Amino acid sequence: MIEEARAPSIFKLLDEQFMLQARGTDKNLLQAVHTQLAHMKSLKKPEKLGAQQFIIVHYAGSVTYDIEGFVEKNKDTVSGLITETLANSKHSIVSSI
């Protein structure tokens, strides 16, 4: 559920929000989590109506995630040095990407 290879997962939904840039929001992520992952037994909605959270249930118990700031906090930024190094690479495997 958190990171599935073939099925929708929280990380895949988070990546979608990053690709949407300005339209990618915490609220949209929460809606996607509750709709696209609703079939998963380990995902629960909070009992409080309108709560901006999702709950993952695993072997150690339930963990509640607050959606506020979730997208921003989980952005994966690639270092400028890494980007520059890849852009200047002459290696065929890198330059073909």
Structure, described:
By secondary structure, the protein is of the alpha+beta class. Helix content is 38%, strand content 14%. It has a 3-stranded antiparallel beta sheet. Helix 1 packs antiparallel against helix 2. The radius of gyration is 17 Å and the shape is elongated. The chain starts with 9 loop residues before the first helix and ends with a helix. 8% of the residues are buried. The mean pLDDT is 82.
Name the features.
alpha+beta; 97 residues
Low-confidence stretches: none
Q: Find the structural class using helix and strand composition.
A: alpha+beta
Helix content, binned percent: 25-40%
Number of strands: 3
SS element count, helices: 5
Largest sheet properties: 3 strands, antiparallel
Task: Outline the fold blueprint.
Blueprint: H1 10-19, H2 26-36, E1 43-44, E2 53-58, E3 61-66, H3 70-73, H4 80-87, H5 92-95
Antiparallel strand pairs: 1-2, 2-3
Helix pairs in contact: 1-2
In short:
With 97 residues, the chain is an alpha+beta fold. The chain contains five helices and three strands; from the N terminus they run ααβββααα.
